[in-house]
User: What shape does this take?
Amino acid sequence: MDEKVVVVGTGLGGLTTALRLARRGYQVEMVEKYHQPGGRLNQLKKDGFTFDLGPTFFSMTYEFDEFVKDTGLEAMPFAFRELDILYTVHFRDTGKRFRIYRDLDLLAQEFETVEPHFKEKMEKFLGSAGTFFHDTEYLVLKRNYDSIFDYLLTLLRVPLKHSPKLFRSVWTEMERHFESREVKEIFSLVAFFLGATPFDTPAIYTILSYTELVHDGYHNVQGGMYRIVEGLKKELDKAGVTMHFDTEIVGYKADNNKLMSLTDQHGKDWKADLFVVNADAAWFRHQIFQRKKFSEGRMDKLKWTLAPFTMYLGLNTKLPDTPLHNYFLGNNFKEYSGKIFKNAIKLDQPYYYVNVVSKSDPESAPEGCESVFVLCPVPDLRYKPDWSDRDEIAGNILRDLSERIGIDLEKHLISKTVMTPLEWRDAFNLYKGSGLGLGHDLDQIGGFRPKNFDEVYGNVFYAGASTVPGTGLPMAVISSKLVVERIIKAYGSLHT
Ligand SMILES: Cc1cc2nc3c(=O)[nH]c(=O)nc-3n(C[C@H](O)[C@H](O)[C@H](O)COP(=O)(O)OP(=O)(O)OC[C@H]3O[C@@H](n4cnc5c(N)ncnc54)[C@H](O)[C@@H]3O)c2cc1C
Assistant: This one.
């Protein structure tokens, strides 16, 4: 029986796939180009501060519970913490700040001056999003598709009443339910979590409002998000999985329709019976397998999610009025959203997200200090290849934030690291610096997304954000479940 697996990449999709397979008796070895595990779910330690590199919160924690059950772990190797205020949203022109609570009565109080009958309207909106979520979660989302036909047949089983959501955008759905600019803008921010804008994201993704406000809320992890990776690494060590860092796959050897080995940058061949690619599923087919269907011309025509411009700031002061998660919006939401993707608007008054991680994990900053993460979604390298203006953009964000929170941040800055889409691309092989991988347009999800099995080599599989089901931490965990289902179907479980 085949049993040796090489997993390329130690992102969340790779780590969870490796443990599921190891627990089923496979001998697993992992290769990773970065110097430590985690992929985008990574960590930066600098000048006495600790920062989460990318993800700061997530929903659908029960996908981790399913993973623990599936792998037979005694307990979750890290501890979730539910966020009580989900986030705050600040408007530049009015100076207003809204706190987003899960409790609908508290939430209604926040909006009582701008949106009459908020609670009733929100209940109706969430009712519709929730029904769609429960009608499709198991039927469509958590499923493997063997072909586009198989996918389309499944879609036919979705109740017809949901079909308008396929043709409307998140923004149009907002306009159907709410009147105020504030409510529409705030609850369409979920589209940005998918790396897109509410104007080009289908209304089916209003399910994210349902998951944040009703279903499971948002969580982070005690001690920082990187505890997820550290916890998984410990379990993988116990299961005998070996990891090799600073090891980048750059080539391959194949025999007809079987992959024999992958070759790293030093010329070493990594042989196995089967291979799981956690590197971006489209990028790997493009860059390593050099498939025509994934040529640069075709890759550039695909819809990629916004790229990240991130800053990691160590401050020698406290930010008393800035809670954990915050969004800072300008006054031109529609224009900005419409132009930001294609680099058609100046980044002099950017929209950005601020996470003060030391609010929930004080040990991430020295006494009296604060660790701050800033994420500004920006155009990817197709539209803006030159980032020589990085200091200017960082300065714009710092100045804007300083004005809005009333503290001169430059004066208190004792550590500063900036990552543009160039650094994100080079760290994790993200195509043209796109932060969340392939977008979630209707022609790029389900049966239309790059498959989790290879078109040519029968012993190659894929896990992670650009294959099914999609991007985000819970989706990476689901992708490991789906790919392992495929592998077990093809190769069987070695522990029966
Ligand atoms: C700035 C930012 C903020 C985010 N915030 C959130 C959030 O708050 N909540 C949330 O749920 N999601 C968030 N996400 C998305 C989330 O990080 C990803 O969806 C998820 O981590 C993807 O995991 P993955 O396993 O698919 O891929 P990755 O994490 O990208 O892992 C793939 C791994 O493969 C390695 N690799 C690539 N090519 C090779 C090669 N040739 N050889 C060897 N190794 C290779 C890479 O180095 C990487 O370690 C965020 C992403 C970014 C960038």
Summary: Residues 103-216 form a domain with the Guanine Nucleotide Dissociation Inhibitor; domain 1 fold (CATH 1.10.405). The mean pLDDT is 96. The two ends are 13 Å apart (CA to CA). Residues 201 and 441 are 7 Å apart (CA to CA).
